[in-house]
Amino acid sequence: INTTKDIIKEILENIKQIEKYFALKEGGIVGQVVQYKDFKDELTGELDEYITSDFNRLKNKLATFEADGGGDTCEDIQGGLIRALEQVMKPEYKDYNHLILIVADAHNHEDGNRVCRCDYDQNVTYGKSFASVWEDIYDMIRKIRNIRIMFMPVSNHYLERTAKIMEKGLGSSIVNTSILSTEENYGEVITSVVRSEYKRFISIT
Predict the structure, then answer these.
(1) Residue 69, by phi and psi: left (phi above 0), alpha (psi -120 to 50) or beta?
(2) How far apart are CA 23 and CA 33, in angstroms?
(3) pLDDT of residue 15
(4) What is d(CA 50, CA 34) in angstroms, rounded to the nearest whole number?
(5) Which residues face 75 on adjacent strands?
(6) CA 88, CA 97: separation in Å to the nearest integer?
(7) What is the 3-state secondary structure (H, E, C) of the chain?
(8) Who's near 12: CB < 8 A, 6+ residues apart?
């Protein structure tokens, strides 16, 4: 968990370097950091959601997050996605190219019921079936002009279950999955993907 926080800080620093490399105007690259959890757990630290070009602010937000435990086989990825997308859909960001990275070692609830040791049969937060919440998420994403969802599985392939569900709903031009990262190459894989994906977006723009 602490390594994840350190890697996200590195990602933010690398993205800012890209901004300088392409001589983009201030605010040309913006970002947000969104945490997600299991239904039974509490979000911690700063809970405000926002997109900003001030990446030091994002680092400070990240530093307030506290987490413990681990070993869960499923999480509320849907809830984190919805909170992220609500910011992305604000009018001031409609002309941006958006990249959402989902980094995890577990999939969303019910996506892999053979290894999902929980008793949830619907999304508790929204009071709907998980399939119905996915459709709500797809509707949000289809309203965004240019967006990519990149799944980054860590330590095992469980996250790929959620990636395949989203890819089936939205297509491979929007949803993709990076190679599996391990404790040894975790930072390298994530940083490489971020660099290549942002440069791809910039070249399109």
Answers:
(1) left
(2) 24
(3) 78
(4) 9
(5) 108
(6) 10
(7) CHHHHHHHHHHHHHHHHHHHHCCCCCCCCCECCCCCCCCCCCCCCCCCCCCECCHHHHHHHHHCCCCCCCCCCEECHHHHHHHHHHHHCCHHHCCCCEEEEEEECCEECCCCCCCCCCCCCCECCCCECHHHHHHHHHHHHHCCCCEEEEEEEECCCCHHHHHHHHHHHHCCCCEEECCCECCCCHHHHHHHHHHHHHHHHHHHC
(8) 31, 55, 58, 59
Parts of the chain with a pLDDT under 50: 204-205
Determine the Cα angle at 53 with ends 92 and 59, to 5°: 135
Amino acid at 42: E
At position 36, the amino acid (one-letter code) is: Y
At CB < 8 A and 24+ separation, what contacts does 117-125 make?
Answer: 117/73, 117/74, 118/38, 118/73, 118/74, 120/39, 123/76, 123/78, 123/79, 124/39, 125/39, 125/76, 125/79
Q: How many CA atoms lie within 13 A of 100 on its CB side?
A: 27
